[in-house]
Amino acid sequence: MQPLIGLSCAADLERERNFLAKAYWQAVVAAGGIPCLLPPLEEKSQVKKLLSKMNGLILTGGPDIHPHYFKDEPLPKIGTVDLERDRFELNCLEFALEKGMPVLAICRGIQVLNVALGGNLYQDINTQVSDSLEHFQTAPDWTPWHRVSFSPNSLFARLYNSEDLIVNSFHHQSIKRLAPDLIAAGWSNDGIIEAVESEKYPFVFGVQWHPERMWRKDAKYLKEFKLLVEWAGEFSI
Predict the structure, then answer these.
(1) pTM of the complete model
(2) Which uninterrupted H or E stretch holds 83?
(3) Can 134 be counted among the known catalytic residues?
(4) Is 107 a catalytic residue?
(5) Using one digit for the tens of pLDDT, what is the confidence trace for 166-179?
């Protein structure tokens, strides 16, 4: 059977609606899964019931995480935050990690994953990291923008059969202090962590770029989704 993949949604706070860019669920379909859009439920019991129907989870891109969750104060360049989404995704991760569910964390998602496991974030790379690259590209979203170098024995080096990859980039926050249970597996040339994996949670991985925006132009960027769907096909609660 095709595995069910839950995807967290973005929010239009003014119009009180939730939505997801088509590129995410189309990538899941192309990888062989069935996408399920997850509403930001408030009650933990409801979150558990919802996720218990899923075989895998994707945390998608979106706004900044409230610095409250990593014990920091808001700095001047903090962007829009969504506390409802923060709480929901952190609750999703708590359940998914407890159950060993496969998780792919994309852009904001890799940051939520790091915070959930005890790490913290740069609230704004340009003002907090000296000599940083431009991480919010001015080219079309499918365009390769900067290089990521992978650890030789990492999941990503094996996945791409290469120790580097040119990726797109649309973020101004990033991992600062890496969570204890995560392993940094890829970096941009300015030292920003761009990919993570975990020994403790072997079916959990995260990327700072947006592969869902790139795979139609180059099929290799579907690899993360294919791997998640493969793992999810073998997972059930």
Answers:
(1) 0.97
(2) helix 83-99
(3) no
(4) yes
(5) 999 999 999 999 99
